[in-house]
Amino acid sequence: ARKYVLTKYFDGEPKKTDFKIVEEELPELKNGEILTEAEYLSVDPYMRAYMIGYKLPTDMIGGQVAKIIESRNEKFPVGKYVAGSFGWRTHTVCNPSEQPKQIFLPLTLLPELGSYPVSLGLGILGMPGNTSYFGLKEICKPKPGETIVITGAAGAVGSHVGQIGKILGCRVVGFAGTDDKCEYLIKELGFDHAYNYRTSNIKAALKEAAPKRVDCYFDNVGGEISTTIMNHMNHYGRIAVCGSISSYNDSILPKVTILQPAIVFKELKVEGFLVNRWVNRWEEGINANLNWLREGKLKYQERIYHGFDNMVEALNGILRGENTGKAIVKVK
Ligand code: NDP
Question: What kind of fold does domain 2-123+301-330 have according to CATH?
């Protein structure tokens, strides 16, 4: 197997020189174990924010979709695909019944996908899909007719949250980083409004798109735009704090804006969450998203990078906003 080992903490944008690529000999399979070969590796924003908690050197974390190429486990036969948190590596030996403690993507056998690509196990049928499904339904709890605002709206999670919002009968407003992304959100995904946060006046946009103010805010980016949106919320508004990508690359955090008056006087409910809270309901989310996909209610886009050696470029790609939809790396 080849694998990435992180040898230096990130400072600003991740660099190739923060890693070493190492060859590792894999052990013989024991009873219950499988050997997998990675076909698609995931790059996700949490990778930039999360490594600070690890002692170096450490194997790089991350999700992948892999093919089972040897098996001593009847439930996981050769030729089937699994999604799991194996990290940035080409081959893995593991026992599917022994899940690692800190996981964002539990090891699951992919359902039969017919003509859909297995890479969806990293996107709408995987961790971002369940983040959208549970984050919106369980934290924002939107009712039909309510207005949902989403930042990072054209990314893996944001684009999915908006589509579920439309399925649930809500008015959906997105903010994303280019005009093309905004056009895609409105024309292809059915968002009611979408604005380029780099060029729009956020307050004016909210006034236009949410004349009855905002009931649910799905926050993927944090920072100043979130303060502006929270100040435009309705009484008893609900805020799902999913991520804060706008500050992941900063070594010095930007100045803090005081949010508490809006939270108190509008009696807002602000709740952070990690998707693995719903690890025991994982299949429910996957099945709901798969059904919507089959019914034509859910669309997806993938930004595919190529080659195991290009993981760092791909990770930087999402931090720079190169992707619409889910960014993945095709290993071969
Ligand atoms: P995306 O596919 O959305 O990729 C990241 C996107 O963020 C980019 O395309 C870019 O789009 C946008 N972005 C980058 N820098 C900035 C910035 N400074 N300000 C605003 N937007 C920026 O990633 P995901 O959908 O996978 O993740 C979205 C968020 O959800 C992240 O914050 C992530 O950490 C979080 N997350 C949280 C989970 C949880 O369990 N809580 C699970 C999964 C994800 P643009 O062109 O619009 O700038």
Answer: Quinone Oxidoreductase; Chain A, domain 1 (3.90.180)
Q: What is the predicted ipTM?
A: 0.99
Q: Is 176 in the pocket of ligand 1 (CB under 6 A)?
A: yes
Distance 322 CA to ligand 1 centre (A): 11
Ligand 1 atom nearest the C-alpha of 323 is: 9
| Bridge partners for 68 per DSSP | 36
Q: Does domain 127-275 have CATH number 3.40.50.300?
A: no
Tell which atom from ligand 1 comes closest to the C-alpha of 46. Answer: 34
Spell out the residues 6+ positions from residue 33 whose beta carbon is closer than 8 angstroms to its own: 71, 72, 73, 93, 94, 95
Please list the residue range(s) of the chain that carry CATH number 3.40.50.720.
127-275
- The structure's pTM equals 0.98
